[in-house]
Amino acid sequence: MATFKQLYLRKVFVLVSIILLVSVILVLGVSSATWNKVSSDHYSLQFYDFEIVNEFPHDSTAFTQGLLYAGNDTLFESTGLYRQSSVRKVAIRTGKVEILHKMADSYFGEGLTLLGERLFQVTWLTKIGFIYDRKNLQKLEQFTHEMEDGWGLATDGKILYGSDGTSTLYQIDSQTLKVTTKNVIKFNGQNVRYLNELEYINGEIWANVWQTDCIARISPNNGTILGWILLPSLRGGLLAAGYNGIDVLNGIAWDSSNNRIFVTGKLWPKLYEIKLHPAKKHYNSEDIEKLCLA
Ligand SMILES: *[C@@H]1O[C@H](CO)[C@@H](O)[C@H](O)[C@H]1NC(C)=O
Ligand SMILES: *[C@@H]1O[C@H](CO)[C@@H](O)[C@H](O)[C@H]1NC(C)=O
């Protein structure tokens, strides 16, 4: 028969065991949480695949250099090439050009963005840009900017973001058109050159990288690359279907009301609505350098 003292000791033993067990569980839990945080910080760069949700006709003579969504299933588009440059209002579902402003033959249209009622456009190999009335695409003003060249434009509704074919992402005051901030965009220590068509999406700048099938997702605050969207199968699919005259992926538009992403390319016969998914394949830095750094 157990004495009172033995019963007491047994109780203490059980209590101490429970305390130890709970401590071990807590320590394991905390350390695995710490591990998860460390590892997710390390892999905070995201890679994205996509699925095609919809495809729409796109004017295959449009050398797309600027694209944006303007509500009501319409896009504004800027096209390049000398003698063929234009600003257009396009119905998404039919691809029909509803209004077309043909530019002077000596201008090569580039990036386009909509701020309030006014469309801002830059042009290739000049520092000249134009402002148009969104209602009728009539030219309101001409301006000069301070970038090396005119490639891409976007806006967060307050300031303009610009690219000029280098690895610099510019912030531009929309009133004075003076550059206020520059960020050099780097990946794995290397400059990401040829930043092209831009879109501002949910607090990020998305940039087509010229001559690649990649879109870089960039923090506008500090220029850090947050992720890569890999779209090689879009151009690949068009080529496989026999569309040999197409040029590179270029043109991102964002419908913020319905979270729709549209992409197209220069001389592409189609505009795609896509949805992103985290990539299943694991990409390392070398893969991305090969695919996305021109
Ligand atoms: C939306 O687009 C359709 C077709 O182009 C047009 O008839 C209609 O007036 C537009 N609605 C608005 C609010 O702009
Ligand atoms: C850059 O800004 C993003 C948010 O836009 C933030 O998540 C990231 O940690 C920042 N990176 C650096 C190096 O400051």
TrEMBL record:
The keyword Transmembrane applies. The keyword Transferase does not apply. GO terms for molecular function: glutaminyl-peptide cyclotransferase activity. InterPro entries: QCT. The chain crosses the membrane at residues 12-35. Pfam families: Glu_cyclase_2. Coiled coil: none annotated. It comes from the Eukaryota. Keywords: Membrane, Transmembrane, Transmembrane helix. This is Glutamine cyclotransferase. It comes from Gossypium raimondii.
